[in-house]
């Protein structure tokens, strides 16, 4: 199939992009990397009246360290983040990126584009939720910050307004004794995850975020031990042609318990190194 007809705009400023979206009155769609959007257009699952290409907005192509976080702009490619020295300061992001599609897709796809697309099986929304990241949304009334954990409303549904652009994401820097874990199961590398988990351990607090197990990333933070019952309850997706709910629960529980153990071990080694 081919995409339905649409108008195309390539603004050079953020204000121009917002104006284009506002004039479309809900019929506009932002495109940057296009690795998620273009297939949706080709299958006519989305029929926007206008595509607003934000690649010409220079200010959105930055990745920088500021105020205890790494901030990634909306047009920064996933592959560029993989290669950037700042990614080492957000270890969980570095662990997850190689699992996002294939290298060729990451060379074009953007971090913020994945966050805005909100696929339930996507890795990067789960990372953002696990780390309690913040996204910046810019519209006619100016920028506003939204916690990633509050941004997702369902499958492909977010708090992004019709005239807003997701301009950046702020991911907190790791502390010295933090521990992390990340894993997923897919039929083949690059396929959508049947179940996946991101883990952050700090002191005796464990944050677990699951993806591919619900219509959005599911996050739980526990002080002490994480029980199997809690992990099972996080999986609320219905079965489909790829896996049943029970199978996904078994996958997720095994992955989560394994990665929690690895994250605790990594945090423990750092604490012992600091004591020496």
Automatic annotation (TrEMBL):
InterPro entries: CO_DH_flav_C, CO_DH_flav_C_dom_sf, Diverse_Substr_Oxidored, FAD-bd_PCMH, FAD-bd_PCMH-like_sf, FAD-bd_PCMH_sub1, FAD-bd_PCMH_sub2, Mopterin_DH_FAD-bd. The keyword Membrane does not apply. It comes from Prauserella muralis. One of its GO terms (molecular function) is FAD binding. This is Molybdopterin dehydrogenase. Gene3D superfamilies: 3.30.465.10, Uridine Diphospho-n-acetylenolpyruvylglucosamine Reductase, domain 2 (3.30.43.10). Keywords: FAD, Flavoprotein, Oxidoreductase. It comes from the Bacteria. The keyword Oxidoreductase applies.
């Amino acid at each position: 199939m081919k995409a339905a007809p649409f108008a195309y705009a390539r603004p050079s400023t953020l204000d121009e992009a917002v104006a284009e979206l506002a004039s479309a009155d809900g019929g506009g769609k932002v495109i940057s990397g296009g690795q998620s959007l273009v297939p949706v257009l080709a299958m006519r699952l989305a029929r926007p009246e206008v595509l607003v290409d934000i690649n010409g907005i220079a200010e959105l192509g930055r990745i920088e360290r500021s105020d205890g976080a790494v901030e990634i702009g909306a047009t920064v490619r996933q592959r560029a983040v993989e290669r950037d020295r700042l990614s080492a300061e957000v270890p969980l992001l570095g662990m997850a990126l190689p699992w996002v599609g294939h290298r060729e897709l990451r060379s074009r796809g953007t971090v913020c584009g994945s966050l805005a697309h909100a696929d339930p099986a996507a890795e990067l929304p789960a990372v953002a939720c696990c780390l309690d990241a913040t996204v910046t949304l810019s519209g006619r009334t100016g920028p506003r910050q939204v916690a990633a954990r509050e941004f997702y409303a369902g499958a492909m549904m977010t708090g992004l307004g019709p005239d807003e652009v997701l301009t950046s994401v702020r991911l907190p820097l790791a502390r010295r004794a933090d521990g992390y874990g990340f894993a997923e199961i897919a039929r083949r590398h690059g396929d959508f995850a049947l179940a996946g988990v991101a883990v952050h351990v700090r002191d005796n607090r464990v944050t677990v975020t699951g993806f591919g197990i619900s219509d959005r990333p599911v996050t739980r933070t526990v002080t002490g031990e994480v029980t199997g019952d809690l992990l099972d309850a996080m999986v609320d997706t219905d079965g489909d042609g790829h896996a049943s709910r029970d199978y996904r629960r078994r996958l997720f529980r095994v992955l989560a318990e394994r990665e929690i153990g690895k994250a605790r071990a990594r945090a423990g080694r750092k604490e012992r190194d600091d004591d020496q």
